[in-house]
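Milestone M4 deliverable, item 7.
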Amino acid sequence: MKKILLSLCVLIAFSSMAQKRNSQNKAIYLEDISWPTAQKLLTPDAVVVIPLGAGSKEHGPHLPLATDYLQAEAYAKEIALQRNVIITPVVSYGFYPAFLKYPGSTSINFATATNTVVQIVRSLAAYGPRRFYIINIGVSTTPTLLTAANTLAEEGILLYYSRYDRQGFVNAEQPFRTKTYSGHADELESSNMLMIRPDLVDMRKAVNDSSMKGKSGNMTPVKIDGGNLNTSGVNGYAALATPEKGRKSMAAFAKELIREVDSVSTCALPKMQDKSAEYKLYEGKYVNGSGKEMVLYQKDGKLYFTWDGKDSRNFFPLYKDAPDYFSSMNLNILFVKNESGGVNKAWCQYRGESFWITKTN
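Output delivered:
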């Protein structure tokens, strides 16, 4: 009975808060609420939706640099109308290396893109949620999300994300393409933008460009050795875009997004891995060249550290992000194993300061 009442209270809170942005919304936008309200809503049963779209990336001569961002935002609005989820602010930076020769385009490296998602999810998971879904407006972002999902799964956190090559999304968009070749700033993306922000689209400059057909790798607006010349930045037939194609394709794509969000809300969570035996290898006292001491120890199945007498046990655990590599809010640490597999030293970066520590016991 208590669980039913609690669920009812949460639904009432969702309903009242959602109406502040749009009277038809069922979802809550995290940025719109206070921390006490977030405390009530960020429960283990909550599903958190994270829109991911580049805030500044080339999309041909006719579309704005924020095309991905605006699509992610638009799809989030559609989900907000139909599902009781929590929607985070749009993540506007990711892994987009192929476009960096086009002025205005931005990208962060693979590791940073992966860690950005991991850190956002870990922060919110600490308050209760274990189910996360990313609206992924990108292709090169997919491997970073796969890496992030695998890392988080070991911590008992479910992260799932959309991807354009998944059959459901292929089927959703295919009926609205006039030409089979497409990929970027093309017929459908341009059509989507004519629906979302027609004031930012200049169809007089839209071109059909198939120069990247059968190629992969970095594109360049001017000839550069090792690059693929594409003077427009378009992969596909942008000149064929219409608002009606955008309306239909976005509705079909949003329907598939919502289907996947529903699956995230009901599927089994990954099982948290017991790392206590592995972490025992790293426990002990270490000292750096200045005589400052670091102590590593376990608590409740997590690895913590004390540095120079300051204890983080109630705040920042160390998370394993790669073999022998851990991170926390303040500390990144890479352990070095000896020939027998033991750990006797580690390289650390603590708030920008880099140093070695040596194990003393």
